[in-house]
Amino acid sequence: MSQARVRFAPSPTGTFHLGSARTALFNWLYAKHTGGTFVLRVEDTDRERNTAEALTVLLKGMRWLGLDWDEGPEVGGDYGPYYQSKRSSVYKEHIEKLFAAGRAYEKGGAVFFKLEGERYTEYDEYHKAEVEKVRTEPQVINDVVRGQVVRAEERDFVIVRSNGQPVFHLVNVVDDITMGITHVIRGEDHLSNTTKHCELFQALGSPLPVFAHIPMILNSSGPGKMSKRGDGVHVEDYERRHFLPHGLVNFLALLGWNSKDDQELFSRDELIAKFDLHGIQKGNARFDEKKLAHINTEQIRRLPEEDFLELCIPVLQSAGVDMSDGAYSEQVLLLCQSKVRSLMELPDFVAYFFDEDFSFDSKAGERLFKKGEPLDRLTEVRAALAKVDDWNAESLDQAFSDLAESNGQDKPFQWFPVTRYTVSGTGGGPDLVPMLSVLGKERVLVRMDSFPYRYPT
Ligand code: GLU
C-alpha cells in the first residue's frame, strides 16, 4: 500500500465538534495505516472567527485525543506555511496561472473561474434573470465511499471575491496540490463542492486526489443531523467529563466505519491495523451517547494498571479526596477499575473508602430492611469477622464459610447484603470480600459498630 499524504483542514471556530474530530481521526488513522503523513492545515481565511483562542481549543483537543500531526502548526514541515492566512502569495501565483491559461476572468471586481464548453443563456427561476450557462463535460468522481458520482458544473464560479479574498474552493484545492495531498477524506457535506474542486485540479494541471466522503452523523434519535451546539457535542465536553481519550477515539472510529467483523472494542494499534477506506460506510452514522459510555467503560477496564492510576489521581484530587495514604489509595482504585463506569463517577464511587462520614443510599437500605432481620445478621457477621486475625481475602472467605456452616447453610450469601451496606452505604460496588480486605479490619468493625447509630431504624 502506498504511503498516503492526508490532511485535516479545519476552520477553527472556538469549539471542536465531534464530527470534525471524526474527520481528523479518519485521516490520522489512514496516515498511520499506510505509514504515510498526516498534515494539519488551518483554514483560517475567515479572519473574524479564527482567533488564536479558537486555534488553541482545536490543537488542545487534537493532542488530548492523541491525534498527533506530522506537519502543521507548532511542528512545521516542508510544505508550510500551514495557515491559509499566511499563504496569499501561493494563491496569487495560482490565480495568475489560471489567468495565463485563459481559465480565469474578472467581472465586477471579482475573479471567476471559467468553465470549458458551449455557452448559452437560460432564464433562471432562482435568480429571476437570464443567466449564462455552460455545457461542460460531466466530472466523474470516483469516490471510495460513494462510488461513482457524476456531476457537471453549469456556471462559472467566483474564485476571488471583490474584496480580494480568494474563496474556499480555490484555496482548498491549491493547498491540496501544493501540499502533495494524495487522499481527501472529509465530510459528505463537501461532496457537492467536489465538482468545482475537480475542475480546478484539472485547470491547474494536477492529477485528482482520491476522494472519500464520509457519511453524516445523525442525532441519537430522529432523522436530524447531529446538533452543532449544546452539551456533549464537542471534544472539550468529554475532556471535562473525564472520558478516556481512547474511549472517545474508539467510539468516533465506529461512527461511519466498521471492521466488517462486528468488533466494537479496539486498541489504538488495532484501529491503525484494521482501518481502511473501504470499511467506511455509505449510510449515515448515528450518534449514540449510551454506546459511547459503554465503550468508555470497557476501555477503562482494559487500561494497564499504571495508566489507570495515573488518570485517576488528578480526578480524585480535584474532587478533594484525601489520598495521603498512597498504598491504600492504589489498592482502592485497582479494586474499582473493573467496576466503575466512568472516571467522572469515580469520586462518588470510591467516597466511602476515604471518608467515615459516607452516606447511606436509602433505596438500598429499604431493600435490605424489607428482607428479614439485617441487624441480627450484622451481629453474627461482626462476631465472625472480629475473630479473623490475618486479614486478607482468603481468611475472610474462610470466615464467611465457617459462619455459613455453623448456621447450617451451604453458602454465606445471606450475610453479604448487610455487610456491604454497613461498610459502604451502597447496594453495589466492587466484589465484597476483596473490598473488605482492602478496607481493613479496623474500618470494617468500626463501621459495623456505628451502623445502628448512623442508620436509625
Ligand atoms: N475547512 C473545511 C471544513 O472545515 C475543510 C474541507 C476539506 O476538508 O476539504 O469543512
Can you summarize this structure?
By secondary structure, this protein is α/β, with parallel strands linked by helices.
Shape: elongated
Oligomer: single chain
Q: Tell me, rounded to a whole number, the average pLDDT.
A: 95
DSSP summary, beta strand count: 13
CATH H-level name of the largest domain... which superfamily?
A: HUPs
Which sequence of strands runs across the widest sheet? 3-4-9
Distance between the termini: 71 Å
Rounded to an integer in angstroms, the radius of gyration calculated over CA atoms is 31 Å
The small molecules bound here are:
glutamic acid
* Helicity, as a percent range: 40-55%
Describe this structure in words.
- The protein has four domains: 87-214, HUPs (Rossmann fold, 3-Layer(aba) Sandwich), CATH 3.40.50.620; 235-302, Orthogonal Bundle (Glutamyl-tRNA Synthetase, domain 2), CATH 1.10.1160.10; 305-354, Helicase, Ruva Protein, domain 3 (Orthogonal Bundle), CATH 1.10.8; 362-454, Orthogonal Bundle (Arc Repressor Mutant, subunit A), CATH 1.10.10.350.
- The longest helix is centred in the first third of the chain and has 17 residues, at 18-34.
- It has helices at residues 18-34, 52-65, 88-100, 168-178, 194-203, 235-240, 245-253, 268-274, 289-302, 305-318, 326-336, 346-354, 362-370, 374-386, 393-406, 416-424, 432-439, 441-454; strands at residues 5-8, 37-40, 104-107, 110-113, 118-124, 129-135, 139-143, 147-151, 157-160, 183-187, 210-214, 217-218, 285-286.
- The strands form six sheets. Strands 3-4-9 form a three-stranded antiparallel sheet. Strands 1-2 form a two-stranded parallel ribbon. A two-stranded antiparallel ribbon has the order 5-6.
- The chain has 18 helices and 13 strands.
- It is α/β, with parallel strands linked by helices.
- Helix 11 packs antiparallel against helix 17 (432-439).
- The model has no long low-confidence stretch (mean pLDDT 95).
- The relative contact order is 0.08.
- It is elongated, with a radius of gyration of 31 Å.
- The N and C termini lie far apart (71 Å).
- The chain is 44% helix and 13% strand.
- The site of glutamic acid has 8 residues, from strand 10.
